[in-house]
Amino acid sequence: MKEPYEKIPRHVAIIMDGNGRWAQKRGLPRPVGHRAGVEALRDIVRMSSDVGIEVLTVYAFSTENWSRPQDEVGAIFRLMLEYLNREVAALVENQVRIRIIGRRDHLNDTLLSAIEKAETASAHCKGLAFNVALNYGGRAELVDAARALARAVQQGELSPEMIDEQTISRYLYTAGQPDPDLLIRTGGDQRLSNFLLYQSSYAELYIPDTLWPDFTPEAYDKALRSYAARQRRFGGIKPR
Ligand code: IPE
Ligand code: IPE
Ligand code: MG
Fold first, then answer.
1. Under DSSP, is residue 145 helix (H, G, I), strand (E, B) or coil?
2. For 235, left (φ over 0), alpha (ψ -120 to 50), or beta?
């Protein structure tokens, strides 16, 4: 049996990148890679909940991904709908609470109602909090937070002096959840691509070359062990 983890991140965030390359390497159309990506996700959600992670946030579609060819965008959204319809029962069974974070505009009605159904069906679940970032952008999230804060000030619920870092956290899509401790980006590209910009200020980064569909539970285990061995200082000098 494997050694238990010395410490476990409370919140893991994942940029699931590399689906297109995975398919292209095999001479297959990019959507086949996205489908393989969904398969990989299933195991990672299960393992996150098994090892006791509190929050898992995965990046499924960015506000910038609309610039891709229409057929690829369509394929991603069809997969998303299929995932929600198929997977929710199993998620609920494992006490996983699913939330879709991001802007709800430009999503079609069928998908919107599947999202609402999935969120309602799992709302009572007390295990892993599973956020799927869809039509998500870190800057869009900050714009939405700024608008909501401005409205609260306008309505006299808040004074500008009362706004501190915690207040801003409470106005983000991840309100009430701890910040990511570990941020994984598969596919080797060393950038954030507009993901969780405010929340990730002290996340430990882990960027394997592995393409997302190849990110197995063994690969995830390696990421979690790498995290456990990190010294986090948060600007201080003593490791925590
Ligand atoms: C990530 O895989 C999934 C989405 C962005 C929807 P990509 O489709 O970006 O795969 P690569 O980076 O082109 O290989
Ligand atoms: C980030 O991947 C978005 C998701 C994984 C959903 P991209 O493939 O869109 O990022 P860039 O374009 O390489 O920065
Ligand atoms: Mg990519």
1. helix
2. left
Tell me how far CA of residue 46 lies from CA of 51, 105, 167, 210, 216, in angstroms: 9, 30, 32, 19, 11
CA distances, 218 to each of 132, 174, 204 (Å)? 22, 28, 19
- Write the pLDDT tens digit of every residue in 27-63: 999 999 999 999 999 999 999 999 999 999 999 999 9
DSSP letter at 234 equals T
- The total number of residues shown for the chain amounts to 240
- The best mutation among 15, 16, 17, 132 to test binding of ligand 1, ranked by most ligand atoms within 8 Å of the C-beta, falls on 17
How many CB atoms neighbour CB 150 within 10 A? Answer: 12
**226 and 210 in contact (C-beta within 8 Å)?**
no
CA distances from 25 to 15, 18, 28, 165 (A): 20, 11, 7, 44
Residue 136 beta carbon below 6 angstroms from any ligand 2 atom: no
Instruction: Name the residues around ion ligand 3, CB cutoff 5 A.
Output: 17
Collapsing DSSP to helix, strand or coil, 106 comes out as: coil
Mean pLDDT value across residues 108-134: 98
Ligand 2 close to Cβ of residue 191 (< 6 A)? yes
Residue 2: is its pLDDT beyond 90? no
The mean pLDDT value for 160-167 works out to: 98
Q: Is 165 left (phi over 0), alpha (psi -120 to 50) or beta?
A: alpha
* Count of beta carbons in the 10 Å neighbourhood of residue 217: 15
